[in-house]
Design a protein that fits this description.
The protein is α+β, with helices and mostly antiparallel strands and about 375 residues long. It has 14 helices and 5 strands.
């Protein structure tokens, strides 16, 4: 029985995606996998070489014919990685060129050259052309092989065997290549999602550190200034303020460690206590609610962040003498009687981070001038 191509599926590339350069794709992981599977399948070309030698009229003819078989084998190995580095048009040209190369064996094999078209079909399959183009090309190869076999040999069993081998192995390889391509795309998507998760976590840590340190350092600065003014006038109170500065610094350090570890917890009750102390140290009247019962439990952490950032802005930017905080089941408001909205306050990083928190929780945040005449931060939960 004449040679009719490889009888088992060879290993397609592990990566069907295009690479940037041809030299790079030749040594890629996918190419190495391809070389192994494709190299095993080339054992079937030994039969082609024997047929070429048997049909040669001289030694020189045999040498040329065997050399062309070797060129065909090398082209099969290189054509697939080459196709992966090219555009769709380039992959089509590679497949067409390899198909044309098979006809160089016609002086020795005649129309039985279609017996090597299994390699052509496999190359079409693993270069990952559009699916419709792939299966129509493979069916066309099989149909052309059937037609040539019928015209040259008449109708018998062998006429069907070669087209069946071409179509079955090529379609099998096409399905396999597309499965691997889908897996690689899923892996790439997973890697992208992991990278996005890392970026989100970095953003969270940066935002929390800004909010925590911004508030803590603001209070520490205010209390240190107060202690400096009281050193001579009231040494005992100055020592008390310095002691509070130390406690705040230690607390800020603990908060930073907890934030980095992902265990930072904020509560509106503790933030109101801290706000009262910070406002009094800054000489600002603190008009704060006596109870936090109005805020539902699931919203108390977010309400704490709102109070923290709002009071920090009042101390830093407002020049106010009074700060008012109002809590409701569906809203939190921080207002002052200071200078009012400014570029420094309205466009601060702290407020930008707070807006992200609020929007992530499904709320809306507005800033502007309030009824006290100064800056107002309001969040609808």
């Amino acid at each position: 029985m004449p040679f009719s191509g490889p009888r088992w599926p060879i290993m397609p590339p592990s990566s069907a995606g295009p690479l940037t350069t041809f030299p790079a794709v030749l040594v890629s992981r996918g190419a190495r996998s391809w070389y192994f599977g494709a190299g095993v399948s080339l054992l079937w070309l030994i039969g082609v070489g024997d047929a070429v030698i048997a049909q040669s009229s001289s030694t020189w003819s045999a040498v040329v014919g065997v050399a062309l078989v070797v060129v065909f084998a090398v082209a099969f190995l290189v054509a697939a990685p080459l196709g992966w580095s090219l555009t769709l048009r380039g992959r089509r040209l590679v497949a067409l060129g390899f198909f044309a190369l098979s006809f160089t064996l016609m002086p020795w094999l005649g129309w039985e050259v279609c017996n090597v078209w299994t390699y052509v079909g496999v190359l079409i399959a693993v270069t990952v052309l559009p699916w419709r183009e792939t299966w129509t090309s493979i069916l066309a190869l099989g149909g052309l092989s059937l037609l040539l076999g019928y015209l040259t040999e008449g109708w018998h069993e062998h006429v069907l065997s070669t087209p069946a081998i071409i179509i079955s192995i090529s379609l099998m390889m096409a399905a396999f290549a597309r499965t691997l391509a889908a897996m690689n795309q899923l892996r790439a998507t997973q890697a992208q999602l992991e990278s996005m998760a890392v970026e989100r976590e970095r953003g969270r840590v940066a935002r929390d550190l800004h909010d925590i340190l911004g508030h803590s350092l603001t209070v520490i600065t205010v209390k240190a200034e107060l202690a400096g003014r009281l050193v001579e006038a009231d040494p005992a109170r100055a020592r008390s303020e310095i002691g509070q500065v130390e406690q705040l610094a230690r607390g800020a350090l603990a908060d930073v460690r907890a934030t980095v570890a992902g265990f930072r917890g904020v509560n509106v009750s503790t933030e109101l206590l801290a706000a009262r102390s910070a406002l009094e140290a800054a000489g600002i009247e603190a008009d704060l609610p006596r109870s936090t019962d109005a805020v539902p439990e699931p919203r108390r952490e977010l309400a704490g962040w709102i109070v923290r950032e709002g009071v920090t802005n009042v101390i830093r930017h407002s020049g106010a003498s009074r700060c008012r905080v109002r809590l409701a089941s569906d809203a939190v408001e921080v207002a002052d009687d200071g200078f009012g909205p400014s570029a420094a306050s309205a466009g601060s990083n702290g407020l930008a981070g707070l807006r992200e928190r609020v929007e992530a929780a499904g709320g809306t945040m507005t800033v502007g001038r309030g009824d006290l005449g100064g800056f107002t931060l309001r969040v609808a939960l």
